[in-house]
């Protein structure tokens, strides 16, 4: 038995098999980064994305040595596509979740009592619809990436989304997950254009575009897939994914939030997954800049030749000798949410060298990760016993040790660098009976390694002073809230 998983990320499309033993095999991947036509805009080609997903999935399925029992789909969240129901052809480019073209609209709507973020789908959907009329408008379909991929997998038979993806569009109420009539009316969105909201695991349609037309049994957003993939299916278990940015997610159980808004400590309620109409909730904290600051060291500062070199260079010194780097290249996310904050080095002296600066960058991301964990624990009252991690930066041993020192508890490193594929496979396997339930998934967790705190002091007080200095560098941006 194998489960075929399609994994559509922000910069690539992947397909792989998840075995009955919970291993990821036969991965095929192609890069598909967003197009950035100008600052603040992020677009992609929906037709190329769908074709890549189906081609890769077909290749992996054909090469499989065991029967494909089900298909799972995990995708980047909040990115949007508009298409014609008659032809399946997209109406223009897709809009990436990073696209900020509707920021002005979001600010205008705040004055009328509607709070949307430009990183959510809501105002992006309205932007797609605004340029259409006549028959195009009558036959319009709007969806996030999961909906678009399923539409293509089923030959246009299914227009669906799951609760994890619907929950980050900005258009869903809580605790009942349904499209909000007031928001749709305000944005001029016909509910008939939108997908049906369903479960994350269950029978969701037939993938007629793939060999043998296997059933689609899982739809899930990427961060929630990573949460499940790292076995965080019991309340109080948490993971952090350190990629371009970073997301820390914690499983909370079936008690839903009273409101969908940002919490007092800068976190957001999310749907962790939904099965048979029963919703498991979570909470998410967000770091805007993680791996991006390593790219900055490579491409702009040219202090290192590639991201992997950051580990070796940072390891040349045991401490930064007082140098602190605040990695707020795009501002602060959780807990402060200050879009006017900016990155900064503090404590640099004539004796500071390249190794000190590179190590300070890794430690800055680690301290930021500790801020996320503190925010989640303050909001929930839960004590996370250890933090599970995946994403590109989880392969950096200096960074992982710095994270363990900053949070003063163990860090458990995922065997899968990107646990999204495994999580989508687990959810599809719940529908087929390959796994009996969330407890069996939790019990299957086996980290690649556990990194304990070193016992060296991690100067959180100095870190907090540095973040205070880097805050509100551009006050006019700091005053903007979504």
Describe this entry's structure for a reader.
Strand 1 (2-8) and strand 2 (12-19) form a beta hairpin. The protein has a 7-stranded mixed beta sheet, sandwiched between helices. A 5-stranded mixed beta sheet has the order 3-2-1-5-11, with helices on both faces. Strands 4-7 form a two-stranded antiparallel ribbon. The protein is 32% helix and 22% strand. Helix 8 (222-229) packs across helix 13 (420-432). The chain has 2 domains: 2-222, Nucleotidyltransferase, domain 5 (2-Layer Sandwich), CATH 3.30.420.40; 231-413 and 452-482, ATPase, nucleotide binding domain (Nucleotidyltransferase, domain 5, 2-Layer Sandwich), CATH 3.30.420. The chain has 482 residues and is an alpha/beta fold. The longest helix has 27 residues, at 354-380.
Give the gist of this structure:
With 482 residues, the chain is an alpha/beta fold. The protein has helices at residues 46-63, 103-110, 122-130, 134-138, 145-153, 163-166, 181-187, 222-229, 291-299, 309-314, 354-380, 397-407, 420-432, 438-443, 460-470, 475-478, and strands at 2-8, 12-19, 24-31, 43-44, 68-75, 80-84, 94-95, 140-144, 160-162, 196-198, 216-221, 238-242, 246-253, 268-275, 278-287, 324-326, 344-346, 387-390, 411-413, 449-451.
Shape: globular
Strand order of the largest sheet: 14-15-13-12-18-19-20
Name of the CATH first level of the largest domain: Alpha Beta
User: What is the count of structural domains?
Assistant: 2
* Arithmetic mean of pLDDT: 96
Strand content: 15-25%
Estimate percent helicity.
25-40%
Query: How many beta-strand elements?
Result: 20
Proper CATH architecture of the largest domain: 2-Layer Sandwich
Poorly predicted ranges (pLDDT <50, ≥5 residues)? none
Alpha plus pi helix count: 16
